[in-house]
Write a structure and sequence with these properties.
With 117 residues, the protein is mainly α. The chain has a single domain (26-116), classed as Arc Repressor Mutant, subunit A (Orthogonal Bundle), CATH 1.10.10. The chain is built from seven helices and three strands, in the order H-H-H-H-E-H-H-E-E-H.
Amino acid sequence: MTKKMSSCLAEHADAIGAAESRLIEGRLAHQVAEMFNAFADPTRVRIINLIADEEKCVGELSLLLGISQPAVSSQLRLLRNVGVATVRRDGKHAFYTLADDHVRDLFKQGLEHILHG
């Protein structure tokens, strides 16, 4: 450690200690990053928007988005795997919606932020 760095650490020891107490563990940081990655694809964002307020089946999503059912299913699988979407099965049909209000709020706040700017 250089003398300059040592001096900086000594000067900011309280701030470093406070920040260290807020530092999240690596695995949790990875999970949060994966969840935010779900919002990083325009097709997934459009799916999230469609299932934010009501459940939709793969066929409906495919028709609305103009993409194949396998492509929709692939995106939904990723959304389920990171906890953004959930599925409800009714016979041969699967209906998707957002996992909870936290995800819905996160999406809507992001959308509002973009629309506001």
